[in-house]
Amino acid sequence: EQLFVGDQVLRVTASNEEQIALLRALGQREDLQVDFWRDPTKPGRPSDLRVPFPSLQAVKIFLESHGISYSIMIEDVQQLLDEEKKTMMLARGRER
Amino acid sequence: SAGTFDFASYHTLDEIYDWLDTLVANHPGLVSKIQIGESYEKRPLYVLKFSTGGSNRPAIWIDTGIHSREWVTQATGVWTANKLAEEYGRDPSITSILDSMDIFFEIVTNPDGYAFTHSSNRMWRKTRSINAGSSCVGVDPNRNWDAGFGGAGSSSSPCSETYRGPYAHSESEVKSIVDFILGHGNVKALISIHSYSQMLMFPYGYKRTPAPDYQELNELAKKAVDDLAAVYGTEYTYGSIVDTIYVASGTTVDWAYENGVKYSYTFELRDTGRYGFLLPSSQIIPTATETWPALLDIILHVQQHPY
Q1: Nearest CB partner across the interface for B278, out of A84, A91, A94
Q2: Which of B110, B164, B220, B243 could form a disulfide with B154 if both were Cys (CB 3.0 to 4.6 A apart)?
Q3: Are the CB atoms for B67 and B117 separated by under 8 Å?
Q4: Residues of B with CB below 8 A from A95's CB?
């Protein structure tokens, strides 16, 4: 089972078409393995980007170097997944 | 029994498929289960049919879970199917609808992907078909329909999350619905449910030209999101796909609209990104509850506006 320890979801807001193009290019880089949960579409509209832990530093540097603003929506994806799994197990016990 | 099924929890494919049988057993005169095809990995594609009789009545199609990681949609599908069955004979509007129309409901539209999200990768979105000449697996089943297929907003790369597939309807999960709807010939509405972003949208996604029925679809969408917001204050945006989010080619609702299904809508359920695809299960019932009046608005409008 694939783990997502340390992966973060970043909320990224491009301010112009050039930054949107940069984000799209970022999404196509196979080395970074980023996963757009919400695609970049138009300036001012936020997009959400899951970034694997090993790519975090590179992605954040990329965003900062191009002046693209971002914030962290989910600090650790795996932590949410663990909670989700725990809740499912508890519910399954209740159902039995 | 239905009494022990926890609608406030996420469930595996097997649990949902078992529950379909329970629902049918509990409502034998109303709900039946039909198989419309097989997935790539040979899982059955099940559709619940809500019908009180008659032959080839006007019908409404609802699907959830075509993108497997959008777990709140399959969970909302289960809750909604149960609600439809439970309210028949109690709620006059549901009773009237099901006395004159049939509803077809595919709760796990991408079962291979859904099983994979439980066993291997919670973030899996696409189908699980093998792509010749690539090590990347799967096709985006919401870019695989024959409506502007291959255009902007879809990818030709098998490694992309929006890979359109080698040709339109290449995915058996998509082709099975196409064959079913065209074979039925009397489907009047299609509602395809996704998450997340809190939006209600209608054609077109692949072109900027307004749909011929834009005004009616837009007014109905406004009513639906207003009634949804009246439950817990959850705000939705609405409009054509291309205006509301982005250009997206080969989508379910564009295909339906271009094939004569006038009332074609797609929902993006909760939330707006705090949890995204990892929406806590405590929000399943609130999500389904607030979506219910919006669905009813669309279904009632279809009943009252025959074409």
Answers
A1: A84
A2: B164
A3: no
A4: 4-6, 9
Residues B26-43 have pLDDT tens digits of 999 999 999 999 999 999
Task: Check CB contact of A87 with chain B, cutoff 8 Å.
Answer: yes
ipTM above 0.85, yes or no: yes
Instruction: Measure in Å the smallest separation between the Cα of B102 and chain A Cα atoms.
Output: 31
CA distances from B35 to A73, B45, B271 (A): 40, 6, 32
Residues with Cβ within 8 Å of residue A24, at least 6 apart in sequence: A40
pLDDT at res. B7: 96
Alpha-carbon gap, residue B126 to B113, rounded angstroms: 6
Nearest CB to A2 within list B121, B274, B276: B121
Q: How far is A57 from chain B (nearest CA, A)?
A: 21
- The DSSP letter of residue A68 is -
Rounded average pLDDT over A12-41: 94
Residue B1 is predicted with a pLDDT of 45
Catalytic residue status for B290: no
Residue B178: what pLDDT?
A: 98
Question: Which 3 state secondary structure label does DSSP give A86?
Answer: helix
Residue that is written with structure tokens 């054609």 in the block: B203
Name the residue facing A95 among B6, B10, B119 (closest C-beta): B6
Indicate the angle between helix axes B13-26 and B111-119, nearest 10 degrees: 130
How far apart, in whole angstroms, are the C-alpha atoms of residue B274 and residue B150? 32
Q: How far apart are CA A3 and CA B240, in angstroms?
A: 37
DSSP state letter for B210: P
Q: What pLDDT digit, counting tens, does each position of A31-80 carry?
A: 999 999 999 988 999 999 999 999 999 999 999 999 999 999 999 999 99
The answer to whether A83 faces chain B, any CB pair under 8 Å, is yes
